[in-house]
Specification:
It is a single chain. With 318 residues, the protein is of the alpha/beta class. The chain has nine helices and 17 strands. The longest helix has 14 residues. The structure holds NADP nicotinamide-adenine-dinucleotide phosphate. The site of NADP nicotinamide-adenine-dinucleotide phosphate (NAP) has 25 residues, from α1, α3 and α4.
Length: 318
């Protein structure tokens, strides 16, 4: 089958011909129609995260997918051939990923059916970014009217988080790199700060003189930078990092700080899909890629230039 795969942690991913993954009695086999691109995918493939995890070579990239079930294992009860499904899955060993024509996925993983009338490209954009945004909002425990500062707001998680927060009547202050005010405003941000030209501290104080109620930092990969951003938060507020750079020894002590880790599950997928079907959020698919477009787009995203979600259309009839 065709897939985007790499031969080693230092190798660049390329469009390759690889063997189809094996299937067990607990698995469903899915013909992938579309797969979203997430930073997690290259970080895992390159050993930048979970370096000790056993890896299969060639390493097929990808964790989010949407497609159609073609076969079910003998222990499978929840799905049948022909079902439209979507989800997030990391194989063990890692490397049987979703940037591929076929994936096999345990029935009990974060996979669920795609509700009508959601299309498979939109569904593929939801798992990692949508679940992360939804679970961050649950962790932050904010009330309507409170201020939420999002740094790195223009990317995948930020695009979902802005919409979900605005739908809860939170006041979103989006910090972006470059002028994203029209796009972020259309997603529901009350104010967009371009950190390439604006003084972020002054702009945040102008918006929220006593400090914001919550900060979600999607951008910083450095504890010192995250700790500096925490000073934008009011006494008793909360700050989360998705990049695990919170360090209590340097964070301000008057706020709660959280290293956020997604706990993916099928119920969370259903919640995000239902919000999309209801029109509360729109799948922010800004890039539609073919498999051959993927290596260049990964470089583009690694340079911090990604906007919204990029979805690989593996099967043109998706
Ligand atoms: N812990 C978890 O469970 C979890 C779950 C999901 C994601 N994550 C992590 O959270 C981060 C955001 O995820 P995402 O899907 O929103 O990523 P994304 O789509 O690539 O967006 C990340 C945003 O960060 C900003 N950025 C600034 N400098 C960057 C650089 N050098 N490289 C990449 N981005 C840069 C950009 O925003 P501006 O241009 O607006 O500044 C970019 O839009 C990623 O690091 C991802 O690995 C963690």
């Amino acid at each position: 089958m065709r897939a985007i795969a790499a031969d080693g942690t230092d190798s660049d991913p390329v469009l390759s011909e690889v063997s189809e993954p094996q299937m067990s009695a607990d698995d469903i086999r899915v013909a992938v129609k579309a797969a979203a691109v997430n930073p997690f995918d290259w970080k895992l493939a390159r050993g930048e995260i979970i370096p000790d995890m056993e890896r299969h070579w060639p390493f097929v990239y990808g964790s989010d997918f949407a497609g159609v079930v073609t076969e079910t294992g003998s222990n499978v009860n929840r799905f049948a051939p022909g079902d439209r499904v979507f989800g997030q899955y990391v194989s063990h060993p890692a490397g049987h990923g979703t940037y591929a024509e076929i994936v096999t996925v345990p029935e009990k993983s974060a996979v669920t059916t795609v509700p009508e009338p959601l299309d498979l490209i939109s569904a593929a954009s939801l798992p990692t970014s949508g679940m992360t945004a939804q679970q961050i909002l649950e962790a932050a425990e904010l009330q309507a009217g409170e201020n939420l500062l999002i740094i790195g707001a223009a990317g995948g998680v930020g695009s979902f988080l802005t919409q979900l927060a605005a739908a809860r009547d939170l006041r979103v202050i989006a910090v972006t790199k470059g002028d994203e005010s029209a796009r972020m405003g259309s997603l529901g941000a009350a104010r967009t700060i371009d950190r390439t030209v604006d003084n972020v501290g002054a702009a945040v104080r102008d918006e929220s003189p006593g400090g914001v109620d919550a900060l979600v930092d999607l951008s910083s990969h450095d504890s010192t930078v995250f700790a500096q951003h925490c000073h934008y938060v009011r006494d008793g507020g909360v700050a989360l990092t998705t990049n695990w750079v919170s360090d209590d020894s340097i964070n301000p002590s008057n706020i709660e700080t959280i290293n956020f880790g997604l706990e993916a599950n099928a119920g969370l997928l259903d919640t995000v899909a239902a919000a999309t079907v209801a029109g509360t959020i729109q799948a922010p698919v800004d890039f539609r890629l073919s498999l051959s477009d993927v290596p260049a787009h990964l470089e583009f995203m690694r340079a911090g230039k990604g906007r919204g979600k990029a979805v690989i259309v593996v099967d043109d009839e998706a």
